[in-house]
Amino acid sequence: SDNMWGTGLTKHLLPDILQTANFQKEWQENIDLLKAIQPNRPLMVMELWSGWFDHWREEHHTTLPEDLASYVENMIKRNMSINFYMFHGGTNFGFMNGANDGHDHTEQYVPDVTSYDYDAPLSEWGEPNKKFMLVREVIRKLVPSAVFPELPTPIPRKAYGRVEMHLCLPLLDVLSMLPKATESKALLPMEMLNVNSKTGQAYGYAVYQTRMKGATTKIRLSDVNDWAAIMVRGEETLYMERWKEATYEVKPIKKDHRRLTILVENMGRVNYGTPPISGRKGILGSVWTNDEVATGWTTYSMEFKPDFLSSISSGGSWERSPPPAYSGPTLYKSSLRVDGEPADTFVDMTGWSKGTVFINGINLGRYWHVGPQRRLYVPAPFLRKGINTVIIFELQKAPSDFTVSFSSEPGLG
What we know:
This protein has 413 residues and is mainly beta. Helix content is 12%, strand content 33%. The protein has helices at residues 8-11, 27-37, 65-77, 130-142, 306-314; strands at 21-23, 44-49, 81-85, 90-91, 98-101, 110-111, 115-116, 161-164, 167-170, 182-184, 205-211, 218-221, 224-225, 227-232, 236-241, 246-249, 259-265, 269-273, 282-283, 287-289, 292-293, 297-302, 319-320, 330-338, 345-348, 354-359, 362-368, 375-378, 386-394, 403-407. The radius of gyration is 25 Å and the shape is globular. It starts with 7 loop residues before the first helix and ends in a 6-residue tail after the last strand.
């Protein structure tokens, strides 16, 4: 299954194997090419793209319902078989969002947002939309023998209102609760950390620590995959993004404050792009302090596994949320009360900067103020009657009121 771009349909032919196509707008051109390369075989679109997925910093993608209905009508009239991609939108819960990448490892790395709604005929939260209705009518018109059951009752959604995240736990106070750290002279990528029965770390965050020498006034990093928060003296936080070498001027560091902590976020594994498709994560280059390569690293794996989430939820030295001027990687905790039967909802992260949200130990996925996505989907089965524990891992800065809002409406961009 492929498409006409780059002659993908003709490069990978196998004898006696049915070739199918993937496309959206260029349906006629792809069909003509399919007919030409296998004239006496059935025609099938393996991926009829009903919409498109979103990357961070992009606009939310939508396509016209009338266009999709027209594509379906034309293909049915040509006796084609159709498989929709996607028919039902979904969610990249946890750290499972993917990413696209190019061959030169520059700005072409683009991670997907948490939502995979895709502007599909059935939404991320299972609601039929105009695309669904129009495609249904096309099939009803062209396939008289088709039987259409009644549509089910819409899934309830509820706005639970605002929740103040009144407790906080800074990153440096969390490290003692993480699995045993990996000690090494040189920096190691996540995949080489001594965790998970020595198989390394695949997802989440890594925290690198070292001691700086002398009166450090300059810190330089290279090749960070994919995003980093650099904490100097435990009070000054700097930020860096993938594939950029960056130099930071800092206040002279005294002898008793030479700890350097760097948190690195794996923002998503590449699932489509030019080889090599499996890029390592963490700090792949070097860290220099005053132009000298830093050595002697202690590296913590922060994967947010269930045992760790349970441990920090019930324990940890939680304190009242800090004043608005506070910034840097911090866990925030509160509770959401649900009266009656739980319903689907969406947690609105407007005002927060960048991070991950957990409810009852379940990783809802990432948020980032750059958009387009503003709200994360919370299916009703993730909630329970009564008290629900909400934890946010904020990497930069929380809003001044430390609140989130639970809405009945999505916020895809």
